[in-house]
Design brief:
11 helices; TIM Barrel; about 325 residues; alpha/beta; eight-stranded parallel sheet
């Protein structure tokens, strides 16, 4: 690490702390890269597939300026926008929106590897340095566990790996974890990011739960697999649980499996607003990460996103070096 980069990190980190009376918070002495936000605009011509007008919390424009005004006050210097639409044209819409806001360092789009125009779309999108890969999983009426067996699916993932792009999952459950393990075994050079852990729907039957844990442990053995600690807050009896002890065992378990080099921060903004405020989400993860070393905290909040996504800096306060 260059000395000027270290000084830059120290200066940025001084703004990243959220102190709240009565809560145990540790200062985050590093800039934050939010690896999971969603952008959409219900007012655009033709509307959007998600969220729907029935969602009174989310159904309003979620665009970079709104995020930036909130996030920069909390030490966040950049974000990765993750698709929120199955419409093929929305890959370009998202890239166009991101291009206007240098705080957005990259985009995870939506592609179907078995689609007739998949290779053409992949090549076209890859030409844009903001395009980092695409997401596929339990979303948009798709099922990765089933779709992997469709002709050409694995070939499409191999093309993604050759391009140096990321395969990201959506909404984990035991079937998805098992399917991701198949991907890791058949396309070992493909970088993958599993989102929304520990928010996975787990089986209650003992043997099924054991199988899930076994698959997750096997998946963690693949060095190109990263996880995002996102969708963490839990509501009980109508109230958000803020006690750090409630979350500790699940987060410790995932940290123990994947280690400090392959765990990322993602807020899931603004979808997270349906469960907790942004500050509540950040406090929960900050309380957990406060128990780790300064180097581990830096990796979690920032550096691991560089390793996972290989995003490119767009602003002076977005260093993309990796600590040796």
């Amino acid at each position: 690490m260059h000395r000027r980069d270290l000084l830059k990190l120290t200066a940025l980190g001084s703004t990243a702390t959220l102190f709240a009376p009565g809560e145990l918070l540790s200062a985050v002495r590093t800039p934050i890269l939010d690896a999971h936000i969603h952008l959409f605009d219900p007012t655009r011509p033709g509307g959007i597939p998600w969220p729907t007008p029935a969602d009174t919390v989310l159904y309003r424009p979620a665009l970079p300026d709104r995020y930036r005004k909130m996030a920069t006050q909390r030490g966040i210097v950049g974000a990765i926008a993750v698709e929120a639409s199955p419409l093929a044209t929305d890959n370009q819409w998202l890239l166009d929106i991101a291009a206007k806001s240098p705080m957005i360092v990259g985009v995870i789009g939506d592609l179907v590897p078995t689609a007739a125009d998949y290779r053409t779309d992949l090549d076209r999108l890859h030409a844009n340095p903001l395009f980092l890969g695409f997401r596929y999983g339990n979303l948009w009426d798709r099922d990765l566990a089933t779709d992997l067996d469709k002709p050409g699916f694995f070939d499409g993932l191999r093309a993604l790996a050759q391009a140096g792009l990321v395969f990201e999952s959506a909404n984990p459950n035991p079937a998805l974890i098992r399917a991701l393990l198949r991907v890791a075994e058949k396309v070992p050079d493909l970088r993958m990011v599993i989102d929304h852990l520990p928010h996975a729907v787990l089986p209650t039957e003992a043997s099924a739960l054991d199988a899930y844990e076994s698959n997750l442990q096997a998946l963690a053995q693949h060095p190109g697999v990263f996880i995002k600690l996102s969708e963490i807050p839990v509501v009980a009896n109508g109230k958000i649980i803020t006690d750090p002890a409630f979350y500790k065992s699940k987060l410790d378990h995932l940290w123990g499996l994947f280690g400090e080099d392959r765990v990322l921060f993602g807020s899931d903004w603004p979808n997270s607003d349906t469960t907790a405020s942004f500050d509540q989400t950040l406090r929960i993860v900050n309380n957990f990460i406060a128990t780790k070393s300064p180097k581990a905290r830096e990796k979690y909040f920032y550096m691991n996103s560089v390793a996972a996504y290989r995003w490119h800096s767009r602003l002076p306060n977005q260093p993309t070096y990796l600590r040796e």
